[in-house]
Amino acid sequence: MSNDVLAIATILGMALATYATQAGGLWLMGRVTPSPRIESWLRHIPGAVLMSIVAPAALASGPADAAAALFTAVVAARTRNLLLSIMLGVAAAWALRRVM
Amino acid sequence: MNQRVTYTLSGALAGARQTVPLAISAFAVAVVFGILARQVGLSLLASGLMSALVFAGASQFIAIGLWATPLPVFIIISTTLIVNLRHLLMGAALRSWFSGLSAPKAYSTIFFMTDESWPLAIRDFMAGGRDAAFMLGSGLTLFPCWVGGTVVGRFIGTGIQSKDLATWALDFIFTALFTALLVSMWRGKSDILPWATAVVVALAASRWLPGTWYILLGGIAGSLVGALRDTRSAEPGSQEPQQEPQYVE
Fold first, then answer.
1. pTM (predicted TM-score)
2. Shortest distance, CA B159 to any CA of chain A (angstroms)
3. Cys-Cys crosslink for B134: which of A22, B15, B82, B230, Cβ 3.0 to 4.6 Å?
4. Is the CB of B207 less than 8 angstroms away from the CB of A8?
5. Closest to A69 measured CA to CA, from A84, A53, A82, A57
């Protein structure tokens, strides 16, 4: 039982740490008057963060995943349909992992 | 950028609608999380609470990986903080949405900013969407799936391994999603330099640094390079600092 109390205390600590990172970005930006450079920096964040998530997942886990990611990008560019891109991308990954 | 930010039911419904496919896959991932949580000895209450209160997939999986007896409380909490530091950048990128809201609305809605809801919200924002309730609707759609999936997985328990996801390539869902979102964010040649920088830094960091530092480092490096390039090529003094109308308390 006391084991569970410690576990729940740890979970509460994790929750606070996570919320601090979420609210922290808002709080900081509410206090800084953005210069053109900061405005430009903020505009570049989403693409750079997403690229940083995708690149290791797509490029560092083998040729099958890299090819499937490329295929997903082509489908997304052609169709502009998120769900279709995901479904065809996963199907491509499944097939390519078997043959590559 | 200068339109007024609203917070309406229809915005929340739009967010919910666009999140449905992701919520289904989030449920599947949460089932796996619940199964792993049982294997390391988390109670049903603790598993459910973690998904409901932390509500951040990557850091939860890492915490389960660190879970041991005696419990390394400090290491788990500090790792959670580091893994989630990327939220600072993600929240900052949505500043224009949230600075138009009252503090209670902004600081409660930000709880629902996750790796799944954020890219959808950013895409909506870049397409001209100015209804910040989009993120609330997206988060409220994910939340029951994430918590419910955790509870279901905790009940199912043994027998299923996370490698079964790889068998069906379901672990590729997130790569596919993020790839498709990236394509929709492409604004032209000016993105090449910051994106290429992000790729190089993220690949190097993922190779030589532990955990998810690569996301933070790649995101910072790519966005900084883009900002430096933009403001260096602009004529000195030609850009006035732009004050946005909604940027008033």
1. 0.72
2. 22
3. B15
4. no
5. A57
